[in-house]
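Journal club prep — side note

Before the paper discussion, L.F. wants everyone to see what a predicted structure for a comparable chain looks like in token form. Sequence:
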Amino acid sequence: MTFLTMTSGNDFVDLRAGAPAAAPTMMAAAAAPAGPVMVQTLNGDDHVLGSSAAEAINGSAGTDRVKGGTGNDTFVFAKGDLVDPTQTSGQMDHIIDFNGSGGYKAYLGVEDDFILFCGFDNGWLTFSHYAGGDAAMQVYGIYGTSGFQGNLLVQMAGGASLLAAGDYKFIRGEAAGLCTDRCTAPLLRRPERVQDGRWFRQ
């Protein structure tokens, strides 16, 4: 696994094959790793374009646009990093291509993405509305014990099913650091418990 940590500015990361080396990216496609990748951006409004590998993308604070590309990708959001669009001129974090919505589908051999919410003691999400009336552009409200945490726009790829159990998971506060500190959890898919600082599936 390869770990990429970006800057605290507005990063553009393009890991797609054939991306021009002159593009304003932190990592040229020619040097992009072929295996699983953990992309950790910092504060800023970031844009990440994934490759055909399995990626875990954590946009951190700011209004981020993330696209996993092909492969079973995991999108990581920590408590406090999501934004309230009423405070950001309508902008919100945006997953550009979520595959496999409607529940866990990897066992069917299809592309199956996942969303991991870190640092929530008792978190939940609710469907809010379709952006622009488009059923593939789904806006969700994210909540924790302290109330509303922000909105997330999930753009479905190849369908319009709503997110369901198996598409996402909320992780308790004490485990939040593991999601961004050399995190292998997202690429193991469906993490269920933590033991001695390592992730295991049940």
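L.F.'s comment for the group: The chain has one domain: 2-80+100-121+156-200. Keep this in mind when we get to the figures.
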